[in-house]
Amino acid sequence: MNLDATRRSLSNTSRLWAIAVCLQIVPCRKRDGTEEFASGRWLTRRKRVCYRNLRSYLALWPREAGLACRASRGRKNVNVVQDVAHQKLAKLEDLLKEMGDVLVAFSGGVDSSFLLWAAHRVLGDRALAVTGKSESVATGQIEEARQLAETLGARHIILDTEELQNPLYVANPTNRCYHCKTELFTKLETFAARQGIRWIIEGSNLDDMHDYRPGLQAAVEHGVRSPLKEAELTKAEIRELSREAGLPTWDKPAMPCLSSRIPYGMVVSPEKLAMIDRSEAYLRGLGFRDLRVRHHGPIARIELPPSEFAKILDGDTAAEVARTLKGYGFKFVTLDLQGFRSGSLNEGVVK
Q1: Which one is predicted more confidently, 195 or 211?
Q2: Most CB contacts within 10 A, which of 47, 293, 336, 343?
Q3: 330 phi and psi, to 5 degrees?
Q4: Final residue of a domain: which of 223, 245, 267?
């Protein structure tokens, strides 16, 4: 058989049937020798002729056929993932409807922003966002939370918290987050009671169950609910749904409290937190997004993705960074060769 001649002889109908087979609409042979498609329709004489040509088509273009099949499966996988995420979103909306009135612990991060968006969409003004403000929260984060709440049209309150007045928090034990969340939820409970709001909700997701999160115990003790976790939403699904919703936080890096930059056992102080806050704000101003400045006494340990090592070491940048961070109070400025690792100070901590 001449390859070019056969290719030219194949009709458009045959090519369409090739695509149908690649999409797994595959004919099967019955005992009597006739063939049936998955749709249940019998093959007519014309279709049988097309199918014979189709076999030649697939034999002559195995690479194209394989690519079509793989592309089809890829589309199906993406659609399945999206369908699952939207089913979970529907479950989240049902949970919020059942609650009726909610106070959202809103930090302005990926999870709490998505939760506020969903709560405001379902409940309108019956959803109230409250952001805790203290020395342990990056200064820019409060303003970002305020702007996002305003963009969403959600009611928003900024509430002062005083975790640094608690010696157990200042001592910086491995369950420091428990004491921080206890302070936050205690203040939110009081505020919610004054507003007549039954439920306090926060943004923990399903993935948080696999990380070291002592703050979750405080949520349980104070009756705070985690609707994203109840709806079984993962971080990846929340980011994707946030992107679809047009939320600017969909690709926002994780931003835990500034105290998480201080190794356990080393005292937390306003001075240390201010050094960390100024250092990270300065590095973001240079264009770095995923970063941490860990406070090891006189040493600043910078964590960046390895792909950005060249950028910070290029030209006079390294010298300028060192000079600036020393101006904030550090004596030595180092770059962690292991790169950026969210929660790196939890390494070695036994849950």
Answers
A1: 195
A2: 293
A3: -80, 150
A4: 245
